[in-house]
Amino acid sequence: MAVLVTGGAGYIGSHMVLELVDAGETVVVLDDLSTGFSWAVPQENAILVTGDVGDSKLLHQLISRHKIDSILHCAAKAIVPESVADPLAYYLNNTVKSRALIEAAIAGGVPNFVFSSTATVYGNVNDDVLSEDLPVAPINPYGRTKVTTEWMLEDAHHAYGLRYGVLRYFNVAGADPKGRAGQSSPQATHIIKVAAQVALGLRPHLDVFGTDYETPDGTCIRDYVQVTDVARAHLVVLEHLRKGGDSAIMNCGYGHGASVLEVAEVVKKVSGVDFEIRPGQRRSGDPARLVAKVDRLRALGWTPRYDDLEKIVSQALRWERLLTERKAA
Ligand SMILES: NC(=O)c1ccc[n+]([C@@H]2O[C@H](COP(=O)([O-])OP(=O)(O)OC[C@H]3O[C@@H](n4cnc5c(N)ncnc54)[C@H](O)[C@@H]3O)[C@@H](O)[C@H]2O)c1
Ligand SMILES: O=c1ccn([C@@H]2O[C@H](COP(=O)(O)OP(=O)(O)O[C@H]3O[C@H](CO)[C@@H](O)[C@H](O)[C@H]3O)[C@@H](O)[C@H]2O)c(=O)[nH]1
């Protein structure tokens, strides 16, 4: 029995692989390395297959050869502004290829499927916290590609009995506390990574995308959730499904948010660097506020360990320093 992690060479996927390996699971990673890195997969403990989630033939082979009993589907293109600029690439990679994977899971008799979805599916909602019962209303193509995959899973569950867990992550941040993994993509646009790079002198200043939102300081609010806590949520959901638990959609966040300016202040405090902040225009596709209601996931036994923005920022800074040292070596 083995777990297939798609996108396991990426930021969140590589942390999922570490958690699974630490828990004694046999792990197979399928990744096309478009934004992931082969070195991010601990290949002494996990098998890395370089390939495409849309490659049905390869999927059928992997599922039967490795006796896959669970799929954690993490592979995707995941950058909101990129999805606004090139939506069809996002529908192909995130929706069409997810369909191929779901089909292969059903054909191969894989009973458990966990999907990496996103808070972006909620769109612009005024509620303080977002419940999974809210209607989905994504305001960007990326969010829509994730909703369509959620719907495919729901329909496949009713038609063919596939059991699924959907985890709607909020803003994933930080790095492995043991320093084994982190956000490594040079194209990453994530605020905590970008601010850490500014603090380390790798970028000249921090742009703030929009200061006229209807939030207390005018900047967007997000629920920043630490990446190892997110990875552990998958183990909790997997255990639930393997025990015969019901298919479900669950938020994965902490239930409280921080604004862009608050994040910048924490990065300044933790790094000890007073960098320049430049107020700018809104970025297309950004909802004002995304904060999770997390009762469902907690009810399954998920207990976060790193719910502390200073800790998250210090992990991100440490990882950024490590990447810089590696480049210099
Ligand atoms: N980072 C966040 O804050 C966040 C929040 C919510 C949801 N998510 C979701 O989490 C997942 C992982 O995101 P991430 O931040 O780790 O991004 P990432 O880009 O680091 O990881 C994605 C991985 O998937 C691989 N991949 C992409 N398309 C593929 C394909 N067709 N076939 C095989 N491999 C493919 C990439 O090479 C990469 O390794 C995504 O599904 C994303 O939508 C991320
Ligand atoms: O240099 C920067 C980068 C970001 N932001 C702002 O910071 C907030 C957070 O942005 P970012 O870190 O880019 O994350 P999101 O666009 O919220 O998207 C992330 O979080 C979503 C879940 O909420 C995931 O689905 C996405 O994959 C992931 O990229 C937004 O208001 C941005 O406008 C800035 O002001 N300056």
TrEMBL record:
One of its GO terms (biological process) is galactose catabolic process via UDP-galactose, Leloir pathway. The keyword Isomerase applies. Its cofactor is NAD(+). Homodimer. It catalyses: UDP-alpha-D-glucose = UDP-alpha-D-galactose. The lineage of its organism: Bacteria, Pseudomonadati, Pseudomonadota, Alphaproteobacteria, Hyphomicrobiales. Its EC number is 5.1.3.2. Gene3D superfamilies: NAD(P)-binding Rossmann-like Domain, UDP-galactose 4-epimerase, domain 1. Keywords: Carbohydrate metabolism, Isomerase, NAD. InterPro entries: Epimerase_deHydtase (IPR001509), NAD(P)-bd_dom_sf (IPR036291), UDP_G4E (IPR005886). Residues 3-253 form the NAD-dependent epimerase/dehydratase domain. Belongs to the NAD(P)-dependent epimerase/dehydratase family. GO terms for molecular function: UDP-glucose 4-epimerase activity. This is UDP-glucose 4-epimerase. It comes from the Bacteria. Pathway: Carbohydrate metabolism; galactose metabolism.
